[in-house]
Fold this protein.
Amino acid sequence: MLSGSLPITDANQHEHMFRGFEKSIIMGGALLVDFFFLASGTLLSYLLLSDLKKYKSVNLLRKVIIRFLRLTPTYMVVVFFHATVFHRLGSGPLWESVVGRERDRCQANWWTNLLYINNYVNADRMCMITTWYLAADTQLFIVCLLMVYIIGRWPPWGYALVATLSSLSVLIPFFNTWWRREEALFLPFTE
């Protein structure tokens, strides 16, 4: 059994790390990412509605381009570093199997990171797995821009769109979980 890249010597101790409310908050941090999506969407909605009220029009493409130019240069330097240099900076028994695999993935899939689609395209061979958040946040940024713009310009259609998408965001995971007979919550322990 592996935790990240390190072998687990005592599975009971590892499993104990996830038990209890206070431990689950820290160890289950991936579930807390939803808060950051909520905060990002709330701030974007507020700013976009303020701009629509003040200027009566907003250039959505300009907002996407500004975000792209703000994030992408630094992001691509880090991807380039992982694809070319990082694997040469260390060694060890697991170094090549972990860092070498990361290098290979970054060399093959750097373009999915550039387009912020790495959480959908070749997701099983993702370059820098933690960057799924940047892709998801960028995708939600674009969806939020469109939704808030529609709400600001055509309120009845916008509210209908929000109600429809909100319903689908609950129903699709529910039926997917029910149909596959999966656990409704992420449970990192076996019992």
